[in-house]
Every structure is written in structure tokens, then in C-alpha cells.
Amino acid sequence: MDNSMKEICDRFNKHNFHDSKLMLFQSIRQKEEEIITENVNFEIEILKKNSSGISEYKKAKLIFKDCRIIKMDLDLIGKRYCSDCVMNAVCSIDSQLNSNIENNYFRRGPVSLGNDNLKNVLDGYLYFNIKLIPPGGEIDVFAKNFELIML
């Protein structure tokens, strides 16, 4: 197991995203020195305690860096009905979805994937899972890193 991947998971999992609100999501293409990557940004409101111990929402940006795959199953009316709230969010090095994607997803059509080995297409990617309060849905992200910026 790659220690840096474990450290990224630990850093993500220490955040309590429960009852945070998912307000916006977007995919942004980045280009740095001839390398093109996709970042997926989520604008969220995180429930935090202020200096008086009272809980209040603080705006933040959750950025998944160098994404390979994002899978969303969202009921936007259900999300709104449940105040846009997140039930939980976790990061792991591997998931059952990794195997499903490697075994099925990339075998559907004649899409050229460059030099990717189909058996190891998600090597180096972490699995991030965000579950919304039912019936809001679920988001799966395969990315190499993340950043949480308080606004």
C-alpha cells in the first residue's frame, strides 16, 4: 500500500461532512506544462462550531484533483427535499466499484484509451464516495488527491 495514498485518505476521512450541504459541482480542465487533467469542484457548506460553540454553516470548496472517473446518481428534487445534505463521505484506496469499472466499463466500445492497461486503469487513483441523505443519491469519484478550501 502506498503511504501517500493512505495519508490522503486519512486526511479526507478526518473531516466530518455529515449534514454538510452540496450546493454546486463542476468539472474543470487544467493544463500544466503539457499535462491535461480534470478537477471536479464541489461548492459545499460545512457545519462547523464557531468560537461560542454554536454550529453554523461555513462555505467551502472541495476539489478532487486529477480525476479519472466521476459517477453520479443524483435525484436533484430528492437532494433539495433533504436540504442538499450529505449523509457521509469517505475515501479509500480500493472499492468494489474499481473491479466493476475495470471489468466492464472500459470494454463497452472502441474508445482508445491511449497506453492504459485495462486491468490497471485505476492504479494510483483513490476512491471517494459521497452519499447524500436519501433519496438525494450518491457520487463516486476516482481522483489522485483532494483539497478542501474554506471560503
Key terms for this structure?
151 residues, 3 helices, 50% strand, alpha+beta, six-stranded antiparallel beta sheet, 6 strands
Describe the overall structure.
The chain has helices at residues 3-13, 76-81, 96-103; strands spanning 21-32, 35-49, 55-74, 86-92, 126-132, 137-150. The protein is an alpha+beta fold. A 6-stranded antiparallel beta sheet has the order 1-2-3-6-5-4. The N and C termini lie far apart (33 Å).
Question: Which helices and strands, and how do they pair?
Answer:
Elements: H1 3-13, E1 21-32, E2 35-49, E3 55-74, H2 76-81, E4 86-92, H3 96-103, E5 126-132, E6 137-150
Antiparallel strand pairs: 1-2, 2-3, 3-6, 4-5, 5-6
Strand content: over 45%
CA-to-CA gap between the ends? 33 Å
Give the overall form. Answer: globular
Report the average pLDDT across residues. Answer: 88
Strand order of the largest sheet: 1-2-3-6-5-4
Low-pLDDT segments: none
How many domains? The number is 1
In DSSP terms (H or I, runs of 4 or more residues), the helix count works out at 3
Number of strands: 6
Structural class: alpha+beta
Helix and strand sequence: HEEEHEHEE
